[in-house]
Amino acid sequence: FTDGDVILRTEGLVRKFGEFTATDHVDLAVERGECRSIIGPNGAGKTTLFNLITGALSVTDGTIYFDGEEVTDLSPPERVRRGMGRSFQISNVFGGLTVRENVRLAAQSVSRDEYSLVESLFKPTDSYDGMNEETERILTRIGLENVAEEEADALAYGNRRRLEIGVVLATDPDIVLFDEPTAGMSVEETQETIDLIEEVLVDQTLLLIEHDIELVMELSDRITVLHRGQILAEGTPEDIAGNQAVQDAYLGG
Ligand code: ADP
């Protein structure tokens, strides 16, 4: 990979909580098209790093670049508009709206035309050709075209997950950020979610924060291991599986 392929980069990223350093000089480079996972034992600093990247937390020191531009001080919505899409944990689906409305609303939220979000729901649909095409394309991609008129609240579990991904895709992201996509799920739901990510998000740049090593082995091109706020190891799933320091960190804390 040349440097031109890096879409997300952090340089010397530091986050302190009082005297405690939760993120300790993290240099991360995510390349276009890869699925990168950030793993590490509880307390390693995964969520903190994720929140720094999305803008939910401000940095103590260091710089974040996205798509060649500095985004360190941009608000979370501005980062979404720049192409940093987020899914799960932050619930982004409106239960009382239909599947189609949810996707269209998300697409509308990042479009630059003059209609407001609320207006967009009530305008005659044929005045939104571009938006409607995009909406239908996404409904097909996530396999929900047959339930497009159902309310989100009425969806079965797996379809709800599909819609959550659809809402992220509607923001036309250059990277999709996942914070523990399978937290709290059963074994079956976890496998369904992995399959769904592989099916729907193929070719998409992904950054996945995950506690469960087993889960990321299947999905990741490369894995970054955090320990005590620092990068302990980085490599392919095979590299990481055979890394003694990583095993020690998980066992020893
Ligand atoms: P992980 O997601 O890997 O479990 P976190 O990023 O949640 O780790 O936490 C890393 C460390 O930072 C933990 O020791 C945690 O107690 C501490 N921490 C996280 N958020 C805060 C906060 N808001 N205030 C104080 N300490 C925090």
TrEMBL record:
GO MF term set: ATP binding; ATP hydrolysis activity
One Pfam family, short name: BCA_ABC_TP_C
Gene3D superfamilies: P-loop containing nucleotide triphosphate hydrolases
InterPro entries: AAA+_ATPase (IPR003593), ABC_AA/LPS_Transport (IPR051120), ABC_transporter-like_ATP-bd (IPR003439), ABC_transporter-like_CS (IPR017871), BCA_ABC_TP_C (IPR032823), P-loop_NTPase (IPR027417)
Domain ABC transporter: 8-253
TM region(s), chain numbering: none
Alphabetical keyword list: Amino-acid transport, ATP-binding, Nucleotide-binding, Transport
Entry annotated with the keyword Transport: yes
PROSITE patterns, per the entry: ABC_TRANSPORTER_1, ABC_TRANSPORTER_2
One Gene Ontology cellular component: plasma membrane
Any one Gene Ontology BP term: amino acid transport
Function: Probable component of a branched-chain amino-acid transport system.
Record-given protein name: Probable branched-chain amino acid transport ATP-binding protein LivG
Species of the source: Natronobacterium gregoryi (strain ATCC 43098 / DSM 3393 / CCM 3738 / CIP 104747 / IAM 13177 / JCM 8860 / NBRC 102187 / NCIMB 2189 / SP2)
